[in-house]
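BUG: 3D viewer hangs when loading the predicted structure for this chain

Environment: internal workstation, default settings.
Expected: structure renders.
Actual: progress bar stalls at 90%.

Input used:
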Amino acid sequence: MEELYNSLVEKVAAEEKKLMTATSKMECSSASSVLCHGSFSRHRSNDHSRSNQQARWLENVSIHDRYIVRTFHSFIRMGDELGPILADSFFGNIPVISVSAFISLLGIILLTMITSLDYLRPPPCETGSILCESSSKLQLGILYTALALVIIGSAGTRFTLASAGANQYEKPKEQGSFFNWYFLTLYTGAITGATAIVYTQENASWKLGFGLCAVANLISFIVFVSGKRYYKHDKPMGSPFTNLIRVVVAATRKRKTVISSREEDYHHGLGREGNTSSAMPSKSFRFFNRAALKTEDESVNNIWRLCSVQEVEDFKAVFRVLPLLLAIIFVSTPMVTQTSLIILQALVTDRSLGPQFKIPAGSLQVIVIITACIVIIMNNCLIYPMYQKLAHKPLTPLQKVGIGHVFIILSMAVSAIVEAKRLKTVTNGHSMSVLWLVPPLVIVGIGETFQFPANIELFYREFPESLSSTATSLTSVVIGISFYLSTALITLIQKTTKWLPNDINYGRVDNVYWLLVIVGVLNFGYFLVCAWFYRYRNLNDDDDQEQDPKDDTT
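Structure tokens produced before the viewer hung:
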């Protein structure tokens, strides 16, 4: 859906460009022949001025379009948390996925109907016409309903599927491998949407493009539902967020209570399997151990004053990951910013491949996805097994995330060098080939391959079982927050510097990239500190060998 929206934005920008060209011709034809042909030199000067104004206006449209896309993406990413929360708290993964997939199918069918039935959309507007009929309230309402259904359906399936799939496996190695293959399927779908579906819409019809999406959704829904009896179903454990808040409240209420070193002084409650658990709270973040400490005249039924040791440890697991989550947000923000800047760079490069074909600026992101698909296969089949054979232990999630950090920072540096070369080429009166933008996209694709699957693997392993679905969707939330931060960063740069004018040929986008490199290096140092002190909660070696829970990422 995101790829289809990108193509729609590009189409709108193209139509606006045609409209301005047609308007220019209309203005000239309506003037007298003396004004159009009498003073050739003055006309050329005015025409050159008008062309500059149009170029600046179109660049502004491009920046505005990218702002709309970033906002749309941020809504989708933030909405991805809704489905996993419902799955963890009330219904379980499989029912949420089934209902959400059906809702998504309804949304795609409705979009197909909009492109098929004339009365569901405004009549076509001829190029250059100033009397275009706008959409009615009913038509807009149906369109927004369709988009809302698609977003809701995506929120309940995209990352809830990741958690449901990982639940089918027992060993962490198998779960980590599943997350890699899961991302491969996501990237494959994105490639199909950004190439085949967009090509069909542009060269055949939008009706056929959305119709193919509806058929694909219907087939996937039938296949998923038909296998429900074979899945391992997880049981919802109530609202996990309530338990987290209870730990904070109970520990705060007993903040003056002396912490005991005796196991019998703590409330253990029931373990995961319904048996009474017995263990001392861990020594990290000892303040919260008070939440499980029994005091005189304290009833076990008062859940806001007494929590179990397991609930305290679950809270600590979430609390322990938060510093790492911040580092992941700040490494994702440069990636999102680069996505917008690359498209603006592509718009002012030579995108011709031969005399007939011109690469669409928005399609450059396909390079990132293709690279990610290739590297995921290489990682699973070659790199990870080879590393485990040589080091006698697998790469930990944080080590993979750290490798991703390095590639992402390197990509920003290469982008800065390429942009500096482009500006020099423009100064000499030439246009740089769009192929110069391929290397940084390939490098960031490699970084994504290490970064995103490892993020999900880390959150899934380290978060409490009651938050397994919510944990897998955190990566999407991180990206959503990064879209907002990217928008704020670009706005700040535009207001405080001259690096991002409407026409980037007169700006310094390379300085923006170098700023992202500095932010990335500082953030990487912060990440290494967090990784050095981090202790894994659920790190199990897949080869039955002892492994230090302390990460050796550095």
